[in-house]
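S., here's the first fold you wanted:
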Amino acid sequence: MASQPRAPYRARFWGVRGSTPTPTAENLRYGGNTSCLELELSPSRRLIFDAGTGIRLLGNQLSESASEPDIRIFLTHYHHDHIQGLPFFRPLYWPGCRLTFHGHRPPGLTLQETLERIVSPPFFPATLAESPSVRRFMEVGIHPIAIDDLTVTPVPLNHPQRATGYRVDGDGRSFLYATDHEPGNAAADAALCAAAKGVGVLIVDAHFTPEEHERHRGWGHSTWRAAAELAREARAGRLILFHHHPHHSDEEMDRIVAAARTVFPTTDAAREGMEFDL
């Protein structure tokens, strides 16, 4: 007897902004917290992608009373806007909470050393080693990671000091989380295009407008046009623009979405609280 398809997992954006938080009135509709995406597998188990300031809000919604909380955090890289919420993530301080950190090995340090340096004086008053949670550190390379019925595949991105995207597949559904990538590196562009092929939901860096990018080449970010062209070439099901520039107001984001839809009609821009199914 064939097994029945499982109920979809829920994915939710908790932070969508790039570079720095923008807690201002002109950003309220899309949101001003930095990068964080949650995939809930069960009330006690979830995958989290990046630990920008959005992870603080996510942590505030989680319950310490959940049975054996088990959380995996996949980090794209270690620039401030992708890790600055980590010291304020409540589950870090729950006794017995299992936290597994996934990320590439930065030059000269292990993943564990990198995160312990971030959560320590003089940058933070306490140390990561003092927290009562149970922590594991798993450095990613090119090999897929199996988690239940899901496969998480790392994807190399073109960004200063390196970045890693993640494609998640399971039960015939998929999404690709690929923020912080600048087109122009042939190997990284090919890897990203291959990873995006046929993906259900493509979440991709659209930090700059094409005009802004001309003045910021080498900064490691893409444009709405490049994102839309990638989605079209990859035949993605849906495009979600991500890592919004801190200077882009809600009105500017509306204009960016409208422009991107002329290239790839099923385009949206990520907003805090936006959800999709996997």
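And the second, which I think is the more interesting of the pair:
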Amino acid sequence: MNIIKSLFDHRRSNSLAARLRRKRFSLFRELAGKVERPIKILDVGGTADFWEKTGFLKDEPNVTITLYNLLANPSGLPQLEPVAGDARDMSRYPDDHFDIVFSNSMIEHLGEFEDQRRCASEMMRVGRRYFVQTPNRYFPIEPHFLYPYFQLYPARLKAFLLWKANIGWYPTATWEEAWETATSVRLMTKSELARLFPQARIIDEKYLGLVKSFTAIGGW
């Protein structure tokens, strides 16, 4: 399990997760380079730490990024604006308010498909372009809980494993915590993601010939 954890720990610069993230972000950087400055980016579920590590803002004085999360965590960087809100309802923003909507491994944390659909609809509404990544439901290792095919188990079995085995990135002390965690993540198939973003180009991100995640790209 420690080997699996090291592979999926994006904080380790040489991990599989970090390498794939860098490759994915290089594509985003290329696409963003085609957009006339100044540009406004909305990162749904993003963090200041993520953008600091990419180094993106060092060379981009005419870029501002809104970090949209349930809690507005101070960033300390003038180009990053933390905003608290619900990803399913961004009615504070008018249509096409942002040049780019970016999201990395967030939409699967909306536990029901209808919630994911509402989020995707809002992303497409408030942004002229979007770049949305999410893990593949059928990749053998579930990336949040680091357990083989965990995403396919019944909810009660998932909660039991979280409660008793202390697996993945989310330690739980009680059954209630385990149940909430187990039901808070819903990975998607490629066809489901295509339903959410019908005009998107869906890119497969592969490891050892297996599709680890998908990225929906639209507006370019």
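Why I say that: The mean pLDDT is 91. Residues 153-184 form one domain.

Talk tomorrow,
H.
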